[in-house]
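Worked example 2:
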Amino acid sequence: MFFRGLFEHTIDAKGRTSVPARFREVLTGNYGDRLVVTTAFDRCLHVMPLKNWEALEARLGQRSSMEPGVKQIYRTYVANATEADVDKLGRILLPPNLRAWAELTKDVVWVGQIKQMELWSKAGWEKASADALSVDHEQDIARVFREIGG
């Protein structure tokens, strides 16, 4: 099972947001309730099952930390990663630094990304999704679909 779809939610005053029910089903059936949340380069948050995060860490650990790209991943992606448990009400607590990075205040959008999820501010998602559908990205999208036979 994969994470797919788009779900609008809110963040409460304590920084908690509900994981969409559909995503919780995928988690419960395949991964458990432990997540890792970290910054993404697009001013959103990446949210993934702990199991997937650990696999990513293992692959990164095989690379030299002296490589400039690896060093930057450690300093941004890994350094900001935090574990989050889904509570009995289906919510996770987002730390202030991650909320600030993604400009999450009230209205948020959860976006399925097959093996992980993204968490966007509503305004950020509207801009990013409009940009993704622009003519500038048509050739990139078409190339990927050709490569995967879609």
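The chain has a mean pLDDT of 92. Residues 50-61 form the longest helix (12 residues).
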